[in-house]
Design brief:
Layout: E1 7-11, E2 14-21, H1 27-34, H2 38-49, E3 56-63, E4 68-74, E5 83-90
Parallel strand pairs: 2-3
Antiparallel strand pairs: 1-2, 3-4, 4-5
């Protein structure tokens, strides 16, 4: 497996994976659009979980053009690959 993460944030509680998208759609469409990307985020999270001592605390799709994010959470945190939507919101600067 080979790939590059857009952004990996390290926190005291674990890591957060963020996938940037240049999708120009309205915030009302972000959730549906984010659900097109679970396989990629799930693979990233799974690979990180294989590293000893790494805890994945969250996976987000960042809609750079709209300034918002959607968090995707695993149905079963132990399995990782099946991510579902959880919440979304605007990023404030």
């Amino acid at each position: 497996m080979e790939g590059v993460l857009d952004l990996l944030l390290e926190t005291p509680e674990g890591v957060v994976v963020i996938d940037h998208k240049s999708y120009p759609g309205a915030p009302s469409t972000w959730e549906k659009k984010a659900l097109e990307h679970p396989p990629q985020l799930a693979a990233d999270a799974h690979a990180l979980r294989m590293v000893e001592g790494v805890t994945v605390r969250g996976c987000f799709v960042h809609f750079a053009l709209g300034g918002g994010m959607v968090e995707l959470r695993a149905r079963d945190p132990q399995r990782g690959p099946s991510l579902v939507r959880a919440a979304h919101g605007h990023v404030r600067g």
